[in-house]
Amino acid sequence: MILGIGTDLTEIARIQKTGLERLAGRILSREERSELPEGGFRRAEWLAGRFAAKEAVAKAAGTGIGSVIGFREIMIRNDEKGKPHARIDPAALERLGWDESVMVHLSVTHTREYAAAFAVLERR
């Protein structure tokens, strides 16, 4: 059963202007920070993709980022083939009235100017 869909489009230049280190500290979990690429455009592109993915997941949850679910409660990791996967923290799932049976389907893409993400939440 589909619980929700969400999408987000993020300008990479806007992410660069925000201050990459400050933004990374605000939105990334400790595990995600360990994957943050070194400086340059790739770092901004990667961070914009993570920002868009987390926003898309929160929109699919029907709440957006806020008191019910925060940026660091949505963990985005890539598998060995590079496919992004999202996991929602159990405490946030509980606040949403859901459990671990909720699966997140996620797609992230980039251009030189934008990062976009699309998320579908499904109860298995």
From TrEMBL:
Chief site of localization: cytoplasm
EC number(s) reported in the record: 2.7.8.7
Matching SUPFAM superfamilies: 4'-phosphopantetheinyl transferase
Highest taxon of the lineage: Bacteria
Positions that bind Mg(2+): 8, 55
Keyword Transferase recorded: yes
Gene Ontology CC annotations of this record: cytoplasm
Swiss-Prot/TrEMBL catalytic activity: apo-[ACP] + CoA = holo-[ACP] + adenosine 3',5'-bisphosphate + H(+)
Subcellular location: Cytoplasm
Cofactor(s) required, per the database record: Mg(2+)
Keyword Magnesium on entry: yes
Keywords (A to Z) from UniProt: Cytoplasm, Fatty acid biosynthesis, Fatty acid metabolism, Lipid biosynthesis, Lipid metabolism, Magnesium, Metal-binding, Transferase
UniProt GO molecular function: holo-[acyl-carrier-protein] synthase activity; magnesium ion binding
GO terms for biological process, alphabetical: fatty acid biosynthetic process
Residue ranges of domain 4'-phosphopantetheinyl transferase in the record: 4-118
NCBIfam families to which the protein is assigned, alphabetical: acpS, pantethn_trn
Family statement: Belongs to the P-Pant transferase superfamily. AcpS family.
Described function: Transfers the 4'-phosphopantetheine moiety from coenzyme A to a Ser of acyl-carrier-protein.
The protein's name: Holo-[acyl-carrier-protein] synthase
Species this chain originates from: Melghirimyces profundicolus
Phylogenetic lineage: Bacteria, Bacillati, Bacillota, Bacilli, Bacillales
Gene: acpS
